[in-house]
Specification:
single chain, 463 residues, alpha/beta, Rossmann fold, 2 domains, 9-stranded mixed beta sheet, globular, hydrolase, Peptidase_S33
Length: 463
């Protein structure tokens, strides 16, 4: 089924780029197309070149019909940056493609999920049923519907498109290769080889190990923060939490989720800067100032991206419930014993650093941030749901004919390297660029380096 194009408006942006803003209508549930629709948003982008001579309509059409290169953002629950601000745009356009940045359903301008928009669905069970339609299986069906619409008048050789997935976007690619390989010419992924066939608990047991390593790296780089973090935890507990500008409360456990930054380039420094600001505020004023609290809230809260928090564990589920797997696994590890209660005072445990958690989502997050608090009941329903359909077809992946070029990071804190290698063995025609010199966000932080390697995998032959 093709998507219905509702609106298309084009304009020029600096850098000789032409951006078209596209709104589509697709079924809310592709398996039940009569059950209502949702709206999706995407931006297409091409080079704007003023022709020397006036072209006929047919000639103009031919110049516009370049192969499509579609970008899927990481997440789940995050939208795409404007194309002129995205580091991939010029690199991909220089390769002769036209690009499509799609806000996946529930994000950006694509039927965004908030507590208010979700409440329109009805009670908590209706909300949960609605959110079940926002995983990778629905996202790739959206993509296929849009592909059919955009390439309707294209020649046969241009009807397939290329796909690029960062992180969760790469997970979506593996679902696409499982379900609709006929729609793809080639696929690229960075930090996106999903842990196929692994339970949520297996995933978190692996990723916690890397989080421990990154904590050790943090305290080795900033040894003064061992005492500083303990002191801040003691202060926060003594105040029974710090009120945040939006109305949330910074608890000790909330503070210790700052480690989700550790897996990014410069992530250790981001956390240190926040710790330093808090420590400096307390030394000067005996309280944490509003600018610092705002910075903390920006680094910690998912109130503007609730889909990430609500569906994060569900992206690993096939015919099983997650049952708050990250919390369950974390509580079994001595480094994260604070998940079972507040840390002791700084003096009592000064010899042992307090370890920060990674990207894990915990039930207590739905108690300390205002928007998430409204979604606590539906999040719990989804955590207990065991009817999640399969996302991957291992039989199909073993016979895959679509080239997949993957950048895989040895020190990836979010997508475990060992599990990624297990997945790579399952997918025929998967070539990897493997490095211990980049982190998960290399597509943003080291764009030229990682894209050079990915296109080398595509263009170079080792035989």
């Amino acid at each position: 089924m093709a998507a219905r194009l509702l609106e298309s408006k084009s304009h020029l942006v600096p850098g000789k780029l032409k951006v078209s803003e596209l709104f589509f209508e697709v079924p809310k549930d592709h398996l039940k197309p009569a059950g209502g629709t949702i709206q999706l948003f995407a931006r297409s982008i091409t080079r704007h070149e003023k022709p020397v001579t006036v072209l006929s309509e047919e000639e103009q059409l031919k110049t516009q019909q370049k192969p499509w290169f579609v970008y899927l953002q990481g997440g789940p629950g995050f939208s795409c940056a404007p194309p002129q601000n995205h580091p991939l745009t010029n690199t991909v356009l220089d390769k002769g493609y036209q690009m499509l940045y799609l806000d996946q359903r529930g994000t950006g301008l694509s039927n965004p999920i908030t507590s208010a928009t979700l409440a329109e669905q009805g009670d908590v069970h209706r909300q949960a049923d609605y959110l079940k339609l926002f995983r990778a299986d629905s996202i790739v069906k959206d993509c296929e519907a849009i592909r059919k619409t955009l390439t309707k008048d294209y020649p046969a050789e241009l009807k397939k498109w290329s796909l690029f997935g960062q992180s969760f976007g790469g997970f979506c690619i593996l679902t696409y290769l499982s379900k609709y390989p006929h729609g793809l010419r080639e696929a690229f992924a960075t930090g996106g080889l999903a842990p196929i066939g692994k339970s949520p608990e297996e995933v978190y047991k692996a990723t916690y190990r890397k989080v421990v390593e990154r904590n050790k790296a943090y305290y080795q780089k900033y040894p003064e923060d061992v005492d500083a973090v303990h002191g801040l935890a003691y202060h926060i507990r003594g105040k029974a939490g710090l009120p945040l500008p939006s109305g949330g409360v910074l608890t000790v456990r909330g503070f210790l989720t700052l480690g989700r930054n550790f897996g990014m380039h410069g992530g250790l420094d981001i956390v240190h800067n926040l710790v330093l600001r808090m420590k400096s505020d307390l030394a000067q004023f005996k309280f944490v100032t509003r600018p610092t609290l705002s910075a903390l809230e920006s680094a910690l809260s998912f109130d503007d991206n609730v889909l990430y928090a609500v569906l994060h564990e569900a992206i690993y589920c096939e015919n099983e419930a997650s049952n708050w797997a990250a919390e369950h696994v974390g509580k079994s590890l001595k480094e994260f014993s604070w998940l079972a209660g507040s840390p002791q005072s700084a003096l009592a445990v000064r010899e042992a650093p307090l370890f920060f958690s990674g990207e894990m989502i915990y039930p207590f997050m739905f108690d300390i941030f205002p928007e998430l608090e409204k979604l606590a009941p539906v999040a719990d329903v989804l955590a207990k749901y065991n009817g999640w359909p399969e996302l991957y077809d291992q039989w199909q992946l073993a016979r895959n004919e679509v080239p997949l070029y993957a950048a895989t990071f040895v020190d990836d804190m979010y997508v475990d390297f060992g599990l990624a290698q297990d997945t790579a063995k399952l997918v025929k025609n998967c070539k990897q660029f493997i490095t211990n010199g980049m982190y998960h966000d290399a597509v943003k932080s080291k764009t030229d380096d990682v894209m050079k390697q990915l296109f080398a995998l595509r263009d170079d032959s080792i035989d």
